[in-house]
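To close the chapter, one final illustration. This time we ask the reader to focus less on the individual chains and more on the assembly as a whole: which components sit near each other, and how the overall shape emerges from the parts.
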Amino acid sequence: MKVGVIGGGQLARMMIPEAIALGIDLKVFAESEGMSAEKSTTVVGDYTNAEQLGWFADGVDVITFDHEHVPITTLQQVEKSGTSVQPPSEALQFAQNKLLMRTRLSEAGLPMPEWEEIKTPDQLGRFISSHGGRVIVKTPIGGYDGKGVRVISDANEVEDWFANIDKLGGSLLAEQLVEFVSEIAVLSARRPSGEWRAWPAVETVQLNGVCSQVIAPAPNVNQRQALEIAERIAAELQVTGVMAVEMFQTRDGELLINELAMRPHNSGHFTIDGSITSQFEQHLRAVLDLPLGLTDLTSEVSVMVNLLGTEKGTDFLENFADTMYRFPEAKIHTYGKSPRAGRKMGHITMVGDDLETVRSRALLAAAVISGS
Amino acid sequence: MKVGVIGGGQLARMMIPEAIALGIDLKVFAESEGMSAEKSTTVVGDYTNAEQLGWFADGVDVITFDHEHVPITTLQQVEKSGTSVQPPSEALQFAQNKLLMRTRLSEAGLPMPEWEEIKTPDQLGRFISSHGGRVIVKTPIGGYDGKGVRVISDANEVEDWFANIDKLGGSLLAEQLVEFVSEIAVLSARRPSGEWRAWPAVETVQLNGVCSQVIAPAPNVNQRQALEIAERIAAELQVTGVMAVEMFQTRDGELLINELAMRPHNSGHFTIDGSITSQFEQHLRAVLDLPLGLTDLTSEVSVMVNLLGTEKGTDFLENFADTMYRFPEAKIHTYGKSPRAGRKMGHITMVGDDLETVRSRALLAAAVISGS
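The assembled structure is written out below.
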């Protein structure tokens, strides 16, 4: 069994242990030398180049992804050559293009914030006026971790995007600013033959647009409702592999779909230490169309805290001994990246019975390892 | 942090995922090409050659082991050059040489079967007569998985060993055949600065001298007594890294030390899926003198079943889909070896609340994946 992963970041890196356990040969197509996943068999290339991807695809059973940036037209060329791509371009386009996603999920009647495709500043001005004077504007393609997303109260604030609107696909996406009480994510996996399994919905805590903490399971959410939304999306869009559905929960318990990712996701890192089957193992099983593993949690509660690069460029390894001494229960995961402020360098997961204990210790451990 | 592992088998292989998570650079010194641990940075060489080991040791922070076959004199040369070897030769000699181990542990007053150093067939004959007519004879060095161990009732049955006794170190080891009700193993880890942690004692089930099943925790054993024996051995022998102490439990609950291994051990594979800290992570932490992780079990019970190569050379991958479909809770681990009858090809672990359910399903899953 050979799986080719496009992208050499931490998601590809965390597939390596699972591939080793299952005897899967993992090949990584990385953007550059020395990336997180370099412990696997790695080739370096340009993922927008269909010819290079064709060479990479030769001899693997399936191509899958560490990121969502491969152009759909490039993927279609790879698919035409007969290689299995999971998720297929037909599904992946909805994760790449937020406008397509909103359109498609609206047709399916799924719950979302109010939104509108925006072509001109005037149109955006009207959307702002009719939505409380403050809205979210997104570039349909290319945003992640808060990039390509702005909260604005005047169309001028995305003037640079309008100036380059052709490069951005000709439109922007405006969305109602949802007053939420919590952010929820549902991780699930679906395989080509249709089997679908989800982990319990989790609560995510964002800081400056970047995921900072994940609490599993989410303490206050209608689990059945959250999972039903994810299952409908997976089936409607014929998604394969792991998918993350990020949602807002409003004061009255309504769930509104925010973003989709069709790959393992930061909100599912806790599954490595907190579930029978990790999202990385499940993704490999799903894209190979192997039966999915149990998604039961192994503890009452798991808390994951991201380790972000600090301003002073802390080398987390220096604080390993201290952290391990004070937190023998901490599961430390590093991504092998050189430190840069705000960069996702690793994460810590803790499991246990009592949310407040686990959460406060996980946060403290993250502070100690970050030298703060 | 760079760790060099001598030996490229499944134990080195299972250190790779933990090394990736902790950002440890793992270098493997393998016996040949294409071994289980080849997914790591691997050099191939002769582990009895001190010069080659010296090159390998250059640039790593510590040397440790996947097996116990490196000659002590070779290791002493490596140590003299200033490289940290964990466990050090001073400790490792007791895992390599069963006669030294029996002598040393007898001096320490630890509980063992009756034993005697044997130089001649006559002496062996007398030991047999005075121990019920049936005893165990071992070659002091080089035995594993039932090799170098015979149950005999006549000195003639080891005539070939007497003929080569000089090559075997000049002596054999005779031991009382213990009537045991169960076999127990205690896995623990100790780091150079003295910290020691153990997992709960497990029960091991052997088939033809090879470990077949492990049940964690052992259902009927005095845990405190078992762990105290392991702790005393670790401290007396100044062991570092993971150590397995295999013991017999007699009808009246007495524990008698059978074998020692100073490395991760088959009886501890369940820790990957059944404990907060796996034996492979703990071994890396211990040999680097980093604080040890919690050894709490994450489930009431774990059962590990070895997957042995079949007579017909079954490729377990062929039965993956069936096994995963019927046993979505099974954790499958493969070692990347070509099939050979009786060879340890992988293992399956299951965790749960009820021993009999978990055990019967784990055994059934192992049968399905083995195509039997």
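The mean pLDDT of chain A is 95. Chain A has twelve helices and 17 strands. With these observations in hand, you are ready for the problems at the end of the chapter.
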